[in-house]
Amino acid sequence: MDPEALIRWLDLTGVLFNAILGGVVARAHRLDPIGFAVLAILSGLGGGLIRDTLLQAGPPVALTDNAYVLTALAGAVIAFAVRLEGRIWDRAFAPIDALALGLWAAVGAQKTLAVGLGPLAAVMLGVVTAVGGGFVRDVVMRQVPRILGRSTLYATCALAAAVLATGLTLLGASTFGSLAGAALGAVLCLLAQWRGWVLPESVGWKPPRPSFRRLRKLARRAARRRHE
């Protein structure tokens, strides 16, 4: 399969999944159809819009390819028409979210390499593509974004996916890199949720504060050494 066509389909799949997740958030907040559409577009297209704006390689693809906006709106319609809740949805939510994360991290990295930027930029924009839409959506809803440490590993999984996709693409295996990166990101995200993996919090170590008496003893000791 043509690598560009594969990247496009993977990208659209991520748009659909994240648009549905945005619609689920809209339902949880009892928003109207406009609210569903806005959150679906922010969630489904936000990361890609940020990536394409930073790449400065022409207008963002979401504005030149109608399939992207239509796919995001389709996700909004699905979430609006179908009450995605209950045991079945709870079980399906994690895999959908994880797969979308892995897909976008891999796609974002490869699109960055395609415009001639280096591997570091590819990894960075792969992560931005994966988490940017959810970040914007959470900020709009006045929630603490998930990637800021209130949940299991998320951005870290996107980082791993972007690194693998970048490495394999540089080795000439772009198609395999897309699939392998997406799979790695999804699997790590699911494992993190299952095992409860989180990044460590700050240690909060403070240097000892010597008392005045201790400082005076140290000064006297230093003075004696100078006289010896």
Describe this structure in words.
The chain crosses the membrane at residues 6-26, 33-54, 66-84, 96-114, 120-140, 152-173, 179-199. Pfam families: Gly_transporter (PF03458). One of its GO terms (cellular component) is plasma membrane. The chain is an all-alpha fold and 228 residues long. It has one domain (3-202). The protein is 76% helix and 0% strand. It contains nine helices and no strands. It has helices at residues 3-28, 33-55, 61-64, 66-81, 87-114, 119-140, 155-170, 174-195, 212-227. The termini are far apart. The model has no long low-confidence stretch (mean pLDDT 87).
List the main descriptive attributes of the protein structure presented here.
single chain; 228 residues; mainly alpha; 76% helix; elongated; membrane; Trimeric intracellular cation channel family protein; Gly_transporter
